[in-house]
Write a structure and sequence with these properties.
It is a single chain. Helices cover about 20% and strands about 30% of the residues. The chain is an alpha/beta fold. It folds into 2 domains: about 110 residues, Immunoglobulin-like (Sandwich), CATH 2.60.40.1180; about 260 residues, TIM Barrel (Alpha-Beta Barrel). Strands 3, 4, 15, 16, 17, 18, 19, 20, 21 and 22 form a 10-stranded mixed sheet that branches. Strands 10-7-6-5-14-13-12-11 form an 8-stranded parallel sheet. The chain has a two-stranded antiparallel ribbon with strand order 1-2. Helix 7 runs parallel beside helix 8. About 55% of the residues are buried.
């Protein structure tokens, strides 16, 4: 991990059930079985969520988590399926691993990497440190740049290839037990050796998603040319538009509260909003910290937590290669909407932070949709489902309080 304290994370998503087109705000919400859920107070919507599928924004690379063998034991075979299967598990589509300082440890990463790939997940790798002979004062020695690049390439080869590799984790976190190269130093390494690391470069991976660190790094034009993805972590920061020189932005590590469990519902909803915010500001990837931890998406007893079910509302249905499309992000108080498409399929993810059931209207242009399969998670239901039809591209649905709903077009 890092010196940051890990925390237990809890989740409860509010049941969003099936309502027909033109149904009024007072219409009863339907449960997973179609039975009216009585006693909910319904808030009328204050604005329409307009989705324009013809206006394409960023390509989504995925939603994932980390397995860091230097700190905790590897995932079991069953846990790998639970983490990465998009049908029976969470559906994580990115696995983050660490590049060990010893090449003798590389092979230990292969079982989980191969399992993740078998479910269609991308694999990204980060170096926390370099072999001791290559380091001086917690920085890679310029005279060792070629040797460090060879070390990263050897890792990539040993594990069967990764989607991207980061040479240095959080170099601007000076209290961390890892490399602390300056932005110009990271840029010099990538400029000189980025093409020799065996995989596309994701960099500079700063703490706080520091725009100044990223800007300084990208000011080295050769380093920028050798960089495929701009990445960073949002500890101590909030999702915001990043000036990345036109490159995809990946959020490659975060967790929210180390003092509660993965089944704490308010914290799970905090994570749901955070993931939604990251997509809204144009980022292409969101990667949680440990996959298996008491505060993570899978707990130490191998159960999917509420956090895990919240993440699955994105990860199962918004797969790598989908593109985000234009939509009204905050159409009503407490309601946040992002939309994605793949070909003629439209996926809408809705986070309702209101305690009360909220009626929300939608309109769709740029794509013909006749109905949706609806999936929802709340404090009592995990990936409940039902379906409904629409006419003319406009519809309204009830969103139960404190819930995440995913609509997948039929």
């Amino acid at each position: 991990m890092k010196r940051k304290l890990l925390f237990l994370f809890g989740v409860s998503l509010a049941l969003a059930a099936c309502t027909k087109n033109n149904q009024s705000p007072a219409s009863s919400e339907l449960s997973k079985t179609g039975t009216p859920a009585l006693g909910d107070r319904t808030l009328a919507t204050s604005g329409n969520a307009a989705i324009n599928a013809a206006t394409v924004q960023q390509t989504v690379e995925g939603f994932g988590g980390a397995s860091i063998l230097q700190y905790i034991a590897d995932l079991t075979s069953a846990q790998r399926t639970t983490a990465f299967s998009p049908t029976t598990g969470i559906g994580l589509s990115i696995l983050r691993v660490a590049v060990d300082t010893s090449s003798s440890a590389f092979a230990a990463e292969v079982p989980t990497i191969n399992a993740a790939k078998s479910f269609g997940a991308k694999v990204i790798a980060t170096a926390w440190y370099a072999p001791a002979s290559m380091v001086s004062n917690d920085m890679v020695k310029p005279s060792s740049y070629a040797a460090f690049a060879a070390h990263l390439k050897a890792f990539n080869t040993a594990v069967g290839g990764v989607t991207a590799i980061s040479p240095i984790n959080e170099p601007n976190d000076t209290g961390g037990a890892f490399l602390q190269d300056s932005a110009p130093d990271v840029a010099n390494f990538v400029a000189q050796q980025g093409a020799n690391c065996g995989a596309p470069i994701m960099a500079p991976e700063p703490f706080n998603m520091s725009q100044s660190f990223i800007t300084t790094f990208l000011s080295n034009s050769t380093a920028a040319a050798n960089t495929s993805f701009v990445c960073g972590h949002i500890y101590g920061a909030t999702p915001a538009v990043v000036s990345s020189g036109g490159k995809q932005v990946w959020m490659t590590e975060h967790y929210t509260n180390s003092s509660v469990s993965g089944n704490d519902w308010p914290n799970a909803m905090t994570a749901a909003k955070e993931i939604s915010d990251c997509m809204n500001v144009g980022w292409s990837a969101y990667v949680w910290w440990y996959i298996r931890r008491s505060y993570g998406p899978i707990d130490e007893s191998s159960n999917i937590t509420k956090l895990g079910y919240v993440m699955s509302q994105f990860a199962r249905y918004v797969r790598p290669g989908y593109v985000k499309v234009s939509c009204t992000y905050n159409p009503s108080t407490g309601v946040y909407v992002t939309a994605y498409k793949s070909g003629t399929k439209l996926v809408i993810v809705i986070v309702n932070q209101n305690a009360a059931t909220t009626f929300q209207t939608f309109s769709i242009s740029g794509l013909t949709v006749t109905g949706f399969n609806r999936f929802f998670t709340n404090s009592t239901t995990n990936i409940g489902s039902n379906s409904f039809t629409i006419t003319g591209g406009s519809f309204g649905i009830n969103l139960t309080g404190s819930s995440v709903t995913t609509l997948v077009s039929e």
